[in-house]
Design brief:
single chain, about 700 residues, five-stranded antiparallel β-sheet
Length: about 700
């Protein structure tokens, strides 16, 4: 309130100045000559003083705490001027000035305490004037007038005070309302900012369109996925970023249903990127009523290409898992029969070889024995093919030149190809070696070439054999038929392609299934065997084929840091050996034929039926054995027996034998000493060369029985 009093000082001082100036001019005309000078000087002095107060408070507003004292001072000036009137004139009619001052000051002073003091001063002046002329009856009249003026002043003060209080309450309420509105607007702006940030930086594509299907907003993910800028699309029709087919569907069906129902879900459309490529999306949209009364959409778009790629990847992994389990099941089945079957074949082959060596060239039974040998060799080949497909065939890997190996096999097959089939070579020189079992790798090349020859058919065509160096990264490895789990790196590649009939998708899907064939003849193991061998050697196969165009098989094998070994002459005769060897095998027929073979080659043989018997033979021997031949699957275990023999005789050479997967048996022996592996069934030449090579690696001199 003091602030309001302070603001009223200047206009009140100005009004009082004008009143006192008017009195200074008019009063001398109305009063007696003897009092005229004093009254005029008093009015002029009061007017000038009030004018000075008006100038000061107008230019230098006083502190609020001085507002009431200054107003009281101005009233006091009026009281002093009125006192001069009373002193000079002794006439109650001149109390007009006092009444004006009481009313004016009462309208200015807002404090009841200051108003009471002001009115008290006015009454004191009136009482003094009345006491100076108590006999004049006019004092009663002017007493009523002054009382009336005081009542008016009090009423004006109270009305103004209450009005100002209500105004103050209204101002406070308005201030509070404005503050609340400001906070609400600030919260709204913060909410809008937060929503815009969420919209802009959402990890999914989002856009908004208006009723005319114009794009009004897009987020950062939308921009990143499509390649447009905001200037490119804001204000354009949404159909401008859709394929023509999708745009037609959206205009005809999707938009009318959306504006009618207010929401849509899982609508498939195709978006066009800025570079012209397109991709599938699923969109969900909701209708939004804006504050300005307009209607727009909030649309979320999910890139279906990512989902489809993920589904394709899951399907590929599921297929790989199925293939792995199928191979594992077949491997278990093949392994279950291979050991016993190869033992039987070994006995048959060994005895057939020995019998043929013993018979004269013109003996009448020699052809029958030769047929037995051929049949047994075919059975052994079939077993090896099953194990190769399962990736569990015994292998002796050596570094070889892939170009040389491929040319040799292809040249052998050229002799049986029809003259209409043209065989061409594009073989790279100086390729890194690959570590493979030469016999197994020959099966790969042979089977792929036979498949190409069958695809070309009697009409003739061309088969191309090409070798090259390739670096494979994970994207290329992921699309191999086999080998998706390989590590990126340098591989040597063999391509065998033809311009034959090609394959349809169904044939390609089942191409590597065992016993599946699209030809009228054949056992359906050629390509499955090739796949198993390549997988067992840490490689991969890629396939490209289209009906009527042709087929290309690409075989990838890891490049080796070792140099290719020179070829051995397999036609050399097996040299005779000497020394005492131990044969441990639970199959009597296999053990006996091995003994007969080795004894004919000059060795002295001791037999053991299982691992325990072999350990006892070595423990009780007075002189060390030259070597020990151990079956991996005999009772007591070949690897376990080999470890026990090495504890008894750390330098004894050990030749492990099995008709099943070697499973890195030589490495699992786990101790130093010469160790080798020989796959069953074997020929007399194979066992003789294997034993001779093993003894050559050992520094032990052959010992003999006493």
């Amino acid at each position: 309130m003091n602030g309001m009093v302070r603001d009223s000082l200047a206009p009140t001082a100005l009004a009082a100045t004008l009143v006192m100036a008017l009195l200074a001019i008019t009063q001398p005309l109305l009063v007696l000559p003897e009092s005229r000078l004093v009254i005029t000087l008093s009015s002029i002095a009061t007017s000038l003083t009030l004018a000075a107060i008006w100038l000061v408070v107008r230019r230098f507003p006083p502190p609020t705490r001085l507002a009431h004292p200054i107003a009281a001072a101005m009233a006091l000036l009026g009281y002093l001027n009125t006192g001069v009137y009373f002193a000079e004139l002794h006439d109650p009619r001149h109390t007009t000035t006092l009444m004006l001052i009481v009313i004016a000051a009462g309208s200015v002073l807002l404090s009841r305490r200051w108003l009471a003091a002001h009115l008290g001063g006015a009454l004191a002046i009136f009482a003094a004037a009345a006491w100076s002329a108590p006999t004049d009856p006019m004092w009663a009249h002017f007493g009523v007038a002054i009382a009336f003026a005081m009542v008016i002043a009090a009423l004006l003060h109270e009305v103004r005070l209450r009005t100002l209080q209500r105004l103050r309450a209204s101002l406070e309420e308005l201030t509070h309302e404005l503050a609340e509105r400001g906070r609400a607007e600030q919260a709204l702006r913060a909410s809008e900012t937060r929503f815009r940030q969420i919209f802009e930086h959402a990890p999914v594509m989002m856009h908004s369109i208006d009723r005319e299907a114009r794009i009004v907003a897009v987020n950062d993910k939308w921009i990143a996925e499509t390649g447009y800028t905001r200037d490119d699309v804001i204000g354009r029709a949404v159909t401008a970023v859709l394929t023509p087919e999708s745009a037609e569907t959206v205009v005809r069906e999707t938009l009318p249903r959306f504006w009618r129902e207010g929401a849509i879900q899982d609508v498939a459309v195709r978006l066009v990127r800025r570079d012209g490529s397109s991709f599938d999306v699923l969109l969900d949209a909701a209708r939004v009523e804006m504050q300005d009364g307009t209607t727009s959409s909030l649309t979320v778009l999910r890139n279906e290409s990512v989902r489809k790629r993920a589904e394709a990847e899951r399907e590929r992994l599921r297929h790989q898992l199925f293939e792995a389990r199928k191979l594992e099941s077949l491997g278990l089945l093949a392994g279950g029969i291979a050991h016993d079957f190869n033992n039987l074949l070994g006995a048959i082959l060994g005895n057939a070889h020995l019998t043929l060596e013993a018979l004269e060239a013109d003996h009448p039974e020699r052809p029958a024995i030769a047929e037995i040998q051929i049949a047994a060799e075919r059975g052994a080949l079939l077993t090896r093919q099953l194990l190769s497909y399962a990736g569990r065939a015994p292998a002796e890997r050596v570094p070889v030149d892939l170009s040389e190996q491929s040319r040799e096999v292809a040249e052998l097959l050229r002799r049986v190809l029809p003259p209409e089939v043209v065989l061409r070579f594009d073989l790279a020189d100086s390729l890194p070696a690959v570590e493979v079992d030469p016999g197994q790798f020959q099966q790969v090349v042979m089977n792929l070439l036979r498949n190409a020859a069958d695809a070309v058919g009697p009409a003739g065509g061309e088969i191309l054999v090409r070798t090259s160096l390739a670096r494979l990264e994970r994207p290329e490895l992921a699309h191999l038929v086999v080998g998706a789990g390989l590590e990126p790196g340098v591989y040597v590649r063999l391509d065998i392609s033809d311009d034959g009939c090609g394959m349809d998708p169904e044939t390609r899907e089942r191409l590597f299934d065992p016993f599946y064939t699209s030809k009228g003849s054949g056992h359906g193991l050629g390509l499955p065997v090739a796949l198993g061998v390549v997988r067992a050697h840490g490689g991969g196969i890629a396939l490209e084929s289209e009906p009527g165009v042709g087929t290309c098989f690409r075989v990838y094998l890891p490049a080796s840091s070792r140099a290719a070994e020179p070829r051995r002459d397999d036609d050399s005769l097996v040299q005779r050996g000497s020394g005492r060897v131990l044969i441990a095998d639970d199959e009597d027929a296999v053990r006996r034929v091995a003994r007969r073979i080795l004894e004919r080659q000059g060795y002295t043989v001791t037999e053991a039926t299982d691992g325990g018997a072999a350990i006892e033979c070595v423990r009780e021997a007075e002189t060390p054995f030259a070597a020990a031949l151990l079956d991996l699957r005999m009772p007591g275990g070949g690897v376990e027996t080999a470890r026990a023999l090495r504890e008894l005789d750390p330098e004894i050479p050990i030749l492990l034998q099995s008709g099943f997967d070697a499973d890195d048996a030589t490495g699992r022996v786990g101790v130093d000493g010469p160790t080798a592996f020989l796959a069953k069934p074997y020929s007399p030449r194979a066992i003789g060369e294997a034993l001779r090579a093993l003894l050559a690696r050992s520094e032990r001199k052959p010992g003999r029985d006493r």
